[in-house]
Request: fold
Amino acid sequence: MPSRLFRVAILPAAVLAAASAQANTPPYGIEVCTLTGTSGQYSVRVRNTGSAPLARADVTGVRLDGGGQAQGNISVSLTAIPPGRYETAILARHGESAALVSIATYQSVNGVETRQQELFAGKVAHVSPGSALQYTLAPLAVRGWTVAYGGPNSPRLESGSAVLLAYPARSGKKMDTRPEAGRAPADVVPLAPCPAPRGR
Reply:
């Protein structure tokens, strides 16, 4: 067993390490993943990876019929997500089918909820190796837009894979149902299934 002196000696170092890690964490950041069931259930999990609370995340989805056609929108608001925690938006229950369309995130700035980021769910519709913009992105579940994306430092994306297109929110501008034409996303990240719980 460590001596009392040793325990006292290492405590400040642990505290300093934790404080340093928190200081290096940006105030804003999220991770998004999906949960699916064997009978149509579909949920979206939003995790706050920043150092400040996330005031709200508005999750928009679309109901799908048996043929995969859109049958109406779904809106779920997740509120007050603390740093390091997550909330889950249920878009489809047993026997239903749905897909993610977009997410808008908000932080409280001087007591006012301010939109920080707009994310659109898409898929890699086409890959053109060697092209300056090698990826053509399209909606995950509906039609109506395409976005050319790529570059020397862009992540490698697989054809047909699900992705999230991230855009900084523009002050005073309402969030649209699709990415703004001609505006390149600030980032494109894979939209992956949530990891299985530990111990399974």
